[in-house]
Amino acid sequence: MSPESPFFTHEVENQAPPLGDYDAWGTDTVLREGVAREGGGWAEAHLAAFGVVAGGELMRQGYVANENKPKLRAFDRYGHRLDEVEFHPAYHRVMQLGMQYGVHAFAWRNEDKPGAHVARAALSYMHAQAEAGTGCPLTMTHSAVPTLRHGTALAQRWLPKINSYDYDPRVMPMAEKTGCTIGMGMTEKQGGSDVRANSTRAVRQADGSYRIVGHKWFFSAPMCDAWLVLAYTSSDGGGAGLGCFLMPKVLDDGSRNAIRIQRLKDKLGDWSNASSEVEFHDARAEIVGQEGRGVATILQMVALTRLDCMIGSSALMRQALVQALHHARHRKAFGKRLAEHALMKNVLADLALDSEACTALTLRVARAVDASPRDAGEAAFARLATAIGKYWICKRCPPFINEAQECLGGAGYVEESNLPRLYRQAPLNSIWEGSGNIQCIDVLRALNKEPETREAFFAELLAAKGAHADLDREIGWLSSAFDDVTTLELRSRMIVERMALALQASVLLRAGVPGAELFATTRLGGEHGLNYGTLPADAPFDAMMARAAVAA
Ligand SMILES: Cc1cc2nc3c(=O)[nH]c(=O)nc-3n(C[C@H](O)[C@H](O)[C@H](O)COP(=O)(O)OP(=O)(O)OC[C@H]3O[C@@H](n4cnc5c(N)ncnc54)[C@H](O)[C@@H]3O)c2cc1C
């Protein structure tokens, strides 16, 4: 086309080249070091293979899956109930790739190898960077396993399908499927944090199964094959308390269970994931564990989904950082690249430092979860550190992504950059699976009811004693922070925040990573502002950025 043509555009200059496909494992030094440190290094070949997929096809399909939201098909054209959710093929492809690599099942299929949960955390971390919405059914499927094991017969029937690497979205009885996914229904209109407010009822039948009547106000993943659901039992006439039930979508005879999808939620973000409102009209279910023990039973699932919230938020932060660094290393302003400007260096290095601290703590907690069956101290640490990390890391995520977004200037506010999607997703992990206050109260509950958690927490900090004066001082402050029990709940956000920062510092210092001292000085020693970009002038800015960047 000639330059005189009215359709001739000017030459486009000073834009970052597309990041394009990249290797989400091979280019992530922090992730690779962390996985090796916490005992998942034996899975390197598998993680490396998935890294190429996650930074490539998964990333591309993730865009499409979010541009094409799922649609509720409540009825067919003749008025028959369908209660189906229609997904774009890109969604199915993302699910298929996630399951093929075991984001939902790698830890259970490799349970005999120490570090399997760490390796699986890395899979989930890479998956969530590419597409976070599918993380919801994948994490629930992974997390349902310890709860399902409360019912021996149920576990024998369902676990082979749950641990399958096949994605099988067909609506048919579990026995005929090659792979199954699991969801969770706890939250009702009148109460989410306080599940004792549930009104859904379960009535025991002569054959030992239950019929369930009620509703769930948030029921993500209504396309799953079964859900773990809380409902009150009253078979003894007196109401035996909350029970945990497994409710299949399709019954053994091929008929649909009586689960009505009322509508899909119109959400801020998490667009690829079809969160719904449902009603149960005498839906058939089987009890998992004992009547009256429902909360304790399902909390085993929730312990794992909370770890996955830490993984998910760390992943969103990592992906935002990748995008910000890439842009700033190419875009020029005032005669040099953005990443060469002093103040931008401070922002990017500070983001890199926080991203590493969140990823490192997440992988440390994944190791504790992994070791829990073999090591009581690690089990106690996992119990407490999951609540601490869930609170802190999920809270860091939204401001972090906003800051990364700002590094791209106006482009960061435009969908094509990926930052708006990350920004919309960012608050979710701090809301579901127990919101911020609930995590802080859970920390106090654990400390009060399970004193061994306190010992495990301080043992973890003391392992780094002497490594940094600010951490030593912080350990002293934390040692007396719990003394005044009358004001403990009021102060618990402050205490849990400082517990989290001390844990992060301890992990980084013992790992000897380049930013460890800087983290302790700035996060514990007070040499830092409330915003990112407030590192002291002698920080190793270039080294921090180079460590985090995916390419030169
Ligand atoms: C997109 C999305 C998908 C979801 N998917 C599912 C799902 O699949 N299954 C499911 O069961 N649930 C799901 N949820 C529900 C989610 O777990 C709940 O929204 C969450 O647990 C909070 O419950 P709530 O909304 O009833 O808020 P509330 O319980 O009313 O809490 C509101 C606020 O009050 C605070 N609060 C509550 N109690 C206290 C207290 N004692 N002290 C101080 N503060 C307190 C909470 O921290 C919160 O900030 C989903 C939510 C979202 C947004």
TrEMBL record:
<dbReference type="InterPro" id="IPR041504">
    <property type="entry name" value="AidB_N"/>
</dbReference>
<feature type="domain" description="Acyl-CoA dehydrogenase/oxidase C-terminal">
    <location>
        <begin position="292"/>
        <end position="447"/>
    </location>
</feature>
<dbReference type="InterPro" id="IPR006091">
    <property type="entry name" value="Acyl-CoA_Oxase/DH_mid-dom"/>
</dbReference>
<keyword id="KW-0560">Oxidoreductase</keyword>
<comment type="similarity">
    <text>Belongs to the acyl-CoA dehydrogenase family.</text>
</comment>
<dbReference type="Pfam" id="PF02770">
    <property type="entry name" value="Acyl-CoA_dh_M"/>
</dbReference>
<dbReference type="InterPro" id="IPR036250">
    <property type="entry name" value="AcylCo_DH-like_C"/>
</dbReference>
<dbReference type="InterPro" id="IPR006089">
    <property type="entry name" value="Acyl-CoA_DH_CS"/>
</dbReference>
<dbReference type="Pfam" id="PF18158">
    <property type="entry name" value="AidB_N"/>
</dbReference>
<feature type="domain" description="Acyl-CoA oxidase/dehydrogenase middle">
    <location>
        <begin position="184"/>
        <end position="282"/>
    </location>
</feature>
<protein>
    <submittedName>
        <fullName>Putative acyl-CoA dehydrogenase</fullName>
    </submittedName>
</protein>
<dbReference type="Pfam" id="PF00441">
    <property type="entry name" value="Acyl-CoA_dh_1"/>
</dbReference>
<dbReference type="InterPro" id="IPR009100">
    <property type="entry name" value="AcylCoA_DH/oxidase_NM_dom_sf"/>
</dbReference>
<dbReference type="InterPro" id="IPR009075">
    <property type="entry name" value="AcylCo_DH/oxidase_C"/>
</dbReference>
<dbReference type="InterPro" id="IPR052904">
    <property type="entry name" value="Acyl-CoA_dehydrogenase-like"/>
</dbReference>
<dbReference type="GO" id="GO:0003995">
    <property type="term" value="F:acyl-CoA dehydrogenase activity"/>
</dbReference>
<feature type="domain" description="Adaptive response protein AidB N-terminal">
    <location>
        <begin position="14"/>
        <end position="169"/>
    </location>
</feature>
<keyword id="KW-0285">Flavoprotein</keyword>
<keyword id="KW-0274">FAD</keyword>
